Amino acid sequence: MIKQKHLTDILYEAMLFSINRDFDTAECEFLYEIMDDGRPSLEITFHYELNGRTMGCLLSLEALEEVSVTVPELHALMKEFGMRAWYRCMMSCHKDGPVSLKFQYKNTGQGCVGKKYCKCQDV
Description:
Helix content is about 30%, strand content about 35%. The protein is an alpha+beta fold. The chain has a six-stranded antiparallel sheet, with helices on one face. A hairpin with a 4-residue loop joins strand 4 (about 90-95) and strand 5. Helix 1 runs antiparallel to helix 2 (about 60-80). It is globular and about 40 Å long. The N and C termini lie close together (about 10 Å). Residues about 110-123 have low confidence and may be disordered.
């Protein structure tokens, strides 16, 4: 899925642009869903670590603009290819390592009793 890789790269670059300094690891959580009235909802939590210290930060305005378009595109693309609609996307990376993207899905009542999220998928 070339398009999925392109969208993932945009999210990764938004993280790097927002840190704009040295880091050991970084993690960004995207909570996305379509509300009952049809409006999309996107919440973002972002932090990075350097020398054992965790620092919360905000995405830059430019990165936020990119992410607010890219996350819904990624969500729609994955549904288009027959995947279930995810609720949470967690992107993490090490300074010199690969990017990890994990998706979690809302509890559908099938085998996930008592858990807010079920099923995690690495990409």
